[in-house]
Amino acid sequence: MLRLRQSLLTMLNPSFHAFLLRRAGVSLQQAILAFHAERSVAGSDTVRLAHVGRGVTIQNPDGLEIAAGVTIGDGTELLLDEAPDGRSRGTIALGKNVKLGKRVQVGAGTHTVRIGDDSSIHNGCILQGSVSIGRYCLLSCNIFISSEDHFFDHRPAWLVRDQDPLARAAEDHAGATGRGVVLEDDCWIGWGAVIRRGVYIGKGAIIGANSVVTKDIAPYSINAGAPCRQIGERLRFRPARELTAGREQHWPYFYSGFLLHQRDLEQSLKSGVVFAGPSARMLLEGGSCSHLRVRGILPARHPLHVRVSLNGAWLQTVQLEPGEFAFEVSVAAAENGHDRAAVPAVLRDFNEVRLDAGTQANSDAVEPHYGIASVILE
To answer: What is the pLDDT of residue 81?
Structure first.
């Protein structure tokens, strides 16, 4: 609930009066909640929610980051802890066209819950703690995902509730308590699934109904059961040393940060590229290599700086010029003794190329888009 004082100030805000005209017929409390949600995007007055249902609870709305076209169903709760200064201590970030069904609970607390563009979270789902969900994901009803847990084996004779703070303070449990849950792009999670803390679910994976996921899931695998195990695969995930945007069989290896919806591909493939956002990752065949070659197109009128990394190790920052571009980077330095312990075990057999784009010079663009035509490891 918003504080009474904040509600009164909201009712005196001229922008709120205009907002009410668009929301005729909803309750005053509901209009206040929706108004704050819409204005949560860094002072923007242009972002509009597609729909906010009845009985929605938004706790500490300054911690919300909401893109255009978001739908929030009846009875949904967006919960963030409050810092001593009254501001939010956590973040809930909802990408473009995200759909939250009825009675969904997103409890970030002091952590971050991030849901990517065009993902749907259906009725009765609960997301708690540190949770990252990629683009194009489909989550059925009554799914439970949490980065939190109780501890029963640190001092077995103690009450479980007494072991929790002890375990979180102990060095040997610090890593376990802080591990978030990650779902990459294009995952489909079935009805009633439970996904435990620290689990990584690779791109394109399918999890069957009522599964209990306790360990990492390989990309494009089909999994079911309690505990969950692999029972099939959508495709054989075997990246090559060269990726080409125009080859459909290579699209799974444009792993994250790419616009792969058919509506986007129809446009980008006219130029022979796949469009990338601010941060993009590609998976290629594993093994040693000496050079990375990248070709693409920068549609913007101004140069763009891109940070290039291999397997988590920075290689070089390159400047892309408008129009067609091509660059080559030596990767020898990244191959010498780099620790890949932070990489999910299901990805360690591959080479990961990451491109992080900075802000375009003389541009107000929030999400710089460029196109990748091919990537080659030699």
So the answer is: 87
